[in-house]
Design a protein that fits this description.
Elements (H helix, E strand, L loop, with lengths): L1 E6 L3 H11 L5 E7 L2 H10 L4 E5 L7 H11 L4 E6 L4 H9 L4 E4 L4 H12 L4 E2 L1 H17 L15 H11 L4 H8 L3 H15 L4 H10 L11
Parallel strand pairs: 1-2, 1-3, 3-4, 4-5, 5-6
Helix pairs in contact: 2-3, 4-10, 7-9, 7-10, 8-9
Length: 224
C-alpha cells in the first residue's frame, strides 16, 4: 500500500485527485494539504511514501517545500505537478530531490503508474519536458556546469534586489514576484535588469541557477 499526500492550493484539484486515486486498492490517500507548511505539519504525524506536490502555492511553494521535505524525510518521494513548463522550476525541484515532474494535464492512469514507479525507487518525467531536463543535467555533468559571479560585485546588490534574486531562484514569474514583494511589475523588471548587469549574467535562467547553487533560496532576507 502506497501512502500518498496530495498538495495543491486549489481545493477542487486536491479533492478530485483524492477521489480518483482512492479507486486503486494499492494506494491510500493519507491526506491533503494547501501549502508547504501544512505538508511539514502532516509529516510530523503521518508516514508518507509519495507526495504529489504543486509548485505554485502561497506561504511555502512546492520548490522550497521539496527541499525541506527531502532534508527532514529523505525516504519520502516527491512528484512535482504543475501546469507550467518552466526551466527554473524543473532545475530547482529536481536539484532538491524530486523524483518526478509531471504536467497537470497528465492522464490519471499515467499519474497512477508514476506513483508506483517513484515509490519503487524510479523516476518519472513528463515526455513534454524530459528532453530539456536531460539536456540541462547532461550539460552540467559533462562540464561540471555551474554559474560563477564575481564576489566583489555582491556588495553592490541592495536588499530589495536580494529578495528578487531569491524569488527568481524559486522560479516565480515577474508578476508573481511583484505580488509577493508588493512591487509593480515594472519595478521588478528594473531590479532584474540591474541585477543581471551587476552580476554579469546573461538571463534569468542563469540567475535562477546561481541563486540555487549559492544558497540564496534558503536565506531569510527579511531579518537582515
Amino acid at each position: 500500500m502506497v501512502r500518498v499526500l496530495i498538495v495543491d492550493d486549489q481545493e477542487l484539484i486536491r479533492e478530485s485527485l483524492k477521489i480518483v486515486l482512492s479507486i486503486h486498492d494499492d494506494i491510500h490517500v493519507v491526506g491533503v494539504a494547501g501549502d508547504g507548511f501544512e505538508v511539514l505539519d502532516i509529516l510530523k504525524r503521518e508516514q508518507i511514501d509519495v507526495i504529489l506536490m504543486d509548485i505554485r502555492m502561497p506561504r511555502m511553494d512546492g520548490v522550497y517545500c521539496t527541499k525541506a521535505v527531502k532534508e527532514q524525510y529523505p525516504l519520502t518521494k516527491i512528484i512535482i505537478l504543475t501546469t507550467f513548463d518552466d526551466d527554473d522550476f524543473v532545475f530547482s525541484a529536481l536539484r532538491y530531490g524530486a523524483s518526478g515532474y509531471l504536467l497537470k494535464g497528465v492522464g490519471m492512469d499515467e499519474l497512477y503508474q508514476a506513483i508506483l514507479t517513484v515509490d519503487n525507487g524510479g523516476a518519472m518525467i513528463n515526455p513534454d519536458i524530459a528532453t530539456k531536463v536531460f539536456s540541462m543535467f547532461s550539460k552540467m555533468s559533462q562540464n561540471n556546469y555551474s554559474i560563477q559571479v564575481d564576489e566583489s560585485c555582491l556588495g553592490d546588490i541592495s536588499k530589495p534586489e536580494w529578495k528578487v534574486i531569491q524569488q527568481v531562484g524559486f522560479g516565480l514569474s515577474n508578476k508573481e514576484i511583484a505580488q509577493k514583494l508588493f512591487l509593480s511589475e515594472g519595478t521588478v523588471r528594473n531590479y532584474l535588469s540591474s541585477i543581471l548587469s551587476k552580476l554579469d549574467l546573461r538571463d534569468r535562467t542563469q540567475l535562477a541557477i546561481w541563486a540555487v547553487q549559492s544558497g540564496q533560496t534558503t536565506k531569510d532576507f527579511n531579518d537582515e
